[in-house]
Automatic annotation (TrEMBL):
Superkingdom per UniProt: Eukaryota
Keyword Repeat: yes
Presence of the UniProt keyword Repeat in the record: yes
Pathway involvement of the protein, from the record: Protein modification; protein ubiquitination
Designated name of the protein: Protein fem-1 homolog B
Sequence similarity: Belongs to the fem-1 family.
Coiled coil: none
C-alpha cells in the first residue's frame, strides 16, 4: 500500500509501525457532519463579508484620497501655487493616474444667479491667468486639451469651452501660445459654435487674433446664429481687427440668421470708420428680415454722421432710397427718447421732400395709406408747402413723423413701437391721457400682430389707469375694456406657446410673462370694478355686457400661477403682489368687488391650489391680523366670506394639512365666525363625506367617480 507523503506528490511504502500507530476514528454521525458543514459555511460567509468590508473601506479611502488630491489641485490651480502642484503631481508617478487626476471636473458654485461653472484644472488655471501652472499641467500632467467645461465670461455662461477658448476670450496670449504648441485644436467651437478666434475678436486683441490665424484659425467660421468674427469686429467697433480679417479673406457680405450683415451692425451703432472700410471692401446694403438696409437702420437710430456717410457715396443709394433714409432720419429725431431734436427733424424731412421734387419731370410722390386713428388720422404732407405749414406745430410734426416711420419701417418691424410708446409717455406727462391711451393701445396691437410679448405694455397701462383713477381724471371705460381684451388675448397666446413652444421660444421666459400677465389681468378686473361703481362714468349696458363677456372668457382660460392660485385666490389673497406705482392705491386685496365680479362671470368657488386651499382658505390664511383691527377691514372680510358661502363654497373642505378654513385662520375671531357658518350651512353630503373621513371607510371603487373628488375634498387626512 502506498499513500501521499507530501503535497509534492512523493510516495513511500506503508510499514507495520504505521498500522500500529494509526488511531481508529469513531464513526461520524450525520448531525456532526452537518454541524461541520455549517461551521465551514459560516466561516466562508464571514470571510467573504470581511473581504467585502475591507474592499469597501479601501474604496472609501481611495475616494477620500482622490477628493483630497482634487481639492489640493484645484486650490493650486486657482491660486497659482506652483510648488504645491509639483509636489502633488509627484505623488502620482503613474502617467495614467496623473492624467486622470488633471482631467477631473471641478464644479464652482460661487457664480451668481444660481449658475455654476464646470472647470478642469487647466481651464481654472487659464481663467485665473496662471501661465506657470498651465505650463506644469501641460508638461507633467498631459491633460486632455479638448476637454470641455462651462464658464461664465463677459456676463454669459458658455457651455462647451476649452482652455484655449477661455485664454483667447480673456486675451491671455502667453497661455494661448502654450496650448497651441502642445496641440490644442484652434477651431474647437463651443456648444453655440463660438471659436477661440471669435472669443478673441470680442475683446479686439489683434495680436492674439493674428497668432490664431497664423495657426490655421478659420476667419469665416460662424456660430449657431450665423454670426461671424467680422460681425463681432464691426459691432464692437474694432477697425484694425476688421481690416485684418478682411485681408485674411473674411466674407464681407455674410448675413446672420436675422439678416444683418457686418455693415448693418456697424451702421446701427454709428461707427462711420468701420462702415467706410466695409464699403471699400465691397459691402452691399443688404436688407435684414424686416426689410431694413444698413442705411435705414442708421437713420432709425438717428446715427446722423453714418447716414451722411452713406449719402455722400456716389451711386450707393438710389433716389428712392435717399428719400426714405432722409425722411426716416427726420421722423426718428422727432420721436426719439435719447436724441429728440425737432429742428433736425424738420430739416431732414424737408431734405427728403425736396429730393422728391428735385426732378420736375420725375416727381416721386408719397404713397397714400389709410390714416391711423392713434395718429389723429394724420395724412402725410405731400408738398414742400404742406411741410412748411407745420414747421412750428410740434404736435403735427410728431404725428407726421410717426406716420412716416410706420410707412417706411413697416408694421411688422419691432422698432416702430418704440417711438409710439415714447410719444404716448410724453402725452401722459402733459396730462393728455386720452392720447397716451390711443398711442399705447396701437403699440400693443402692432406687437401682438407680430407675435411679440406685450407684458410690459399691459403693466404700463395698469399704472396709467391707476394714476388716472387716483387723480380723479375722466376715464374712458371702452379704453379699459380694449386693454382688458388685449390682456385676455395675450394670456391665451401664452398658454398656446407654453403648450407648443417653437424652436426659438424660451419656455421659462414665456412662463414668467404668463405669470405677470395673470397678475396684470387681475389688476385690470379690479379697475373695472372701480369704474363700474363711479356714478360719473355710467358706462352703457352694452359696454357692461362686453366687460362681463371678457371676464367670462378669462375664467374659461383657467389661468393660474405656478402654485396653482387662480384669479379668485389672488382676489382674496391679503399678500397678493401689487405694483407700487399708483397701482397699490387702487388695487388692494382682498377685494370684495373683484370677488363678486369673478364669481358672477363664471369663476369656480371651490377651485383649489397646489396645497388644496380653496379661496376661503386663502382668505383667512393670508389676511394680516393687524389689518383686522380696523373694523372696516373686518367687515370687508366677513362680506367676502358671505359671498363665497352664498356661491356654494364647502366650509368643511380640507387642505393638504387636513385643516378646514376655520382651523387655518390666524385670527381667532375669524375662526369662530366661520364655525358659525359651518353650523348653519352644513348639508347631508358634507356630513356623509366627513363620516367617511372620520371612520376611514374605503370609498374608492365603491361610489360613482364623480363623487370621489368631492369626498377627497372633505377627508384629506392631515400630514
Amino acid at each position: 500500500l502506498e499513500y501521499p507523503a507530501s503535497c509534492c506528490g512523493h510516495f513511500r511504502p506503508v510499514t507495520l509501525r504505521d498500522w500500529k500507530s494509526a488511531k481508529v476514528s469513531a464513526p461520524v454521525s450525520a448531525g456532526t457532519a452537518c454541524r461541520k458543514r455549517r461551521t465551514r459555511s459560516t466561516t466562508h460567509v464571514d470571510t467573504m463579508a470581511k473581504m467585502t468590508k475591507e474592499s469597501e473601506e479601501l474604496e472609501q479611502k481611495k475616494e477620500a484620497l482622490r477628493r483630497n488630491a482634487m481639492e489640493r489641485l484645484s486650490y493650486a490651480a486657482k491660486e497659482g501655487f506652483c510648488k504645491q502642484l509639483l509636489a502633488l503631481l509627484r505623488e502620482f508617478p503613474d502617467e495614467e493616474d496623473r492624467r486622470a487626476l488633471v482631467d477631473q471636473e471641478i464644479c464652482d458654485y460661487e457664480v451668481e444667479d444660481n449658475e455654476h461653472q464646470v472647470l478642469t484644472p487647466l481651464i481654472l488655471a487659464t481663467l485665473n491667468g496662471h501661465a506657470e501652472i498651465v505650463h506644469i499641467l501641460l508638461t507633467l500632467g498631459q491633460p486632455d486639451l479638448e476637454k470641455e467645461g462651462c464658464v461664465k465670461l463677459h456676463g454669459e455662461l458658455t457651455q462647451g469651452v476649452t482652455a484655449l477658448w477661455v485664454a483667447a476670450g480673456l486675451g491671455r496670449l502667453n497661455i494661448v501660445k502654450q496650448l497651441i504648441q502642445h496641440g490644442a485644436q484652434v477651431n474647437h467651437a463651443t456648444r453655440k459654435g463660438s471659436t477661440p478666434l471669435r472669443a478673441a475678436c470680442f475683446d479686439g486683441r489683434l495680436d492674439l487674433i493674428q497668432y490664431l490665424v497664423a495657426h490655421q484659425a478659420n476667419v469665416c467660421t460662424a456660430n449657431m446664429y450665423n454670426n461671424t468674427c467680422l460681425m463681432i469686429a464691426a459691432y464692437k467697433n474694432y477697425p484694425d481687427v476688421l481690416q485684418y480679417l478682411l485681408e485674411q479673406g473674411a466674407r464681407v457680405n455674410e448675413q446672420a440668421q436675422c439678416g444683418a450683415s457686418a455693415l448693418y451692425y456697424a451702421a446701427e451703432c454709428g461707427y462711420v470708420e468701420v462702415c467706410e472700410r466695409l464699403l471699400d471692401h465691397g459691402a452691399l446694403l443688404l436688407r435684414n428680415t424686416y426689410g431694413l438696409t444698413p442705411a435705414l437702420a442708421a437713420a432709425e437710430r438717428t446715427r446722423e454722421s453714418t447716414v451722411l456717410a452713406f449719402l455722400a457715396r456716389p451711386g450707393l443709394l438710389t433716389r428712392e432710397e435717399r428719400i426714405d433714409v432722409l425722411e426716416l432720419l427726420g421722423a426718428s429725431y422727432a420721436n426719439d427718447k435719447n436724441n429728440y431734436n425737432v429742428a433736425k427733424a424738420f430739416e431732414y424731412l424737408m431734405m427728403g421732400m425736396e429730393e422728391r421734387y428735385k426732378d420736375p419731370e420725375n416727381i416721386i410722390r408719397k404713397p397714400t395709406l389709410p390714416p391711423v386713428p392713434a395718429y389723429e388720422l394724420w395724412v402725410e404732407c405731400q408738398t414742400v408747402q404742406d411741410l412748411f405749414a407745420i414747421r412750428y406745430n410740434h404736435n403735427s410734426l410728431h404725428m407726421e413723423s410717426l406716420t412716416i416711420r410706420e410707412r417706411i419701417l413697416g408694421r411688422q418691424c419691432p422698432e416702430v413701437v418704440h417711438s409710439i410708446i415714447y410719444r404716448g409717455a410724453v402725452c401722459a406727462d402733459h396730462g393728455r391721457f386720452d392720447r397716451c391711451e390711443s398711442l399705447w393701445l396701437h403699440a400693443i396691437r402692432l406687437r401682438q400682430q407680430n407675435g411679440l410679448s406685450v407684458q410690459r405694455d399691459l403693466l404700463r397701462f395698469v399704472q396709467l389707469f391707476s394714476q388716472e383713477f387716483s387723480i380723479n381724471v375722466q376715464m374712458h371705460f371702452e379704453g379699459v375694456l380694449a386693454v382688458l381684451g388685449a390682456c385676455v388675448d395675450e394670456l391665451r397666446y401664452n398658454q398656446q406657446k407654453l403648450t407648443n413652444p417653437g424652436p426659438r421660444d424660451d419656455p421659462d421666459a414665456i412662463g414668467e410673462d404668463y405669470e405677470m400677465n395673470v397678475v396684470t389681468v387681475l389688476y385690470l378686473v379690479t379697475i373695472v370694478t372701480k369704474l363700474l361703481r363711479l356714478e360719473r362714468l355710467r358706462p352703457t349696458d352694452q359696454l357692461i355686457l362686453q366687460a362681463y363677456q371678457m371676464i367670462y372668457q378669462l375664467n374659461q382660460l383657467e389661468v393660474r400661477l405656478r402654485d396653482d392660485q387662480t384669479l379668485l385666490h389672488l382676489a382674496v389673497n391679503g399678500i397678493a403682489p401689487v405694483d407700487e406705482f399708483y397701482t397699490e392705491d387702487v388695487c388692494r386685496f382682498p377685494c370684495v368687488d373683484t370677488v363678486k365680479l369673478l364669481l358672477k362671470c363664471g369663476a369656480h368657488v371651490d377651485v383649489v391650489d397646489c396645497d388644496r386651499n380653496t379661496p376661503l382658505h386663502t382668505l383667512v390664511g393670508t389676511v394680516e391680523p393687524a389689518r383686522l383691527i380696523n373694523s372696516n377691514a373686518v367687515e370687508e372680510v366677513k362680506e367676502i366670506v358671505d359671498v363665497l358661502v352664498r356661491a356654494g363654497v364647502h366650509l368643511d373642505a380640507v387642505n393638504t394639512d387636513g385643516l378646514k378654513a376655520s382651523q387655518d385662520s390666524h385670527y381667532a375671531p375669524m375662526g369662530e365666525f366661520l364655525r358659525g357658518y359651518e353650523i348653519r350651512a352644513i348639508n347631508l353630503r358634507c356630513l356623509s363625506a366627513r363620516a367617511i373621513a372620520q371612520h376611514r371607510i374605503p370609498f374608492r371603487n365603491q361610489i360613482p367617480l364623480q363623487l370621489v373628488s368631492f369626498v377627497e375634498r372633505h377627508c384629506m387626512p392631515k400630514g
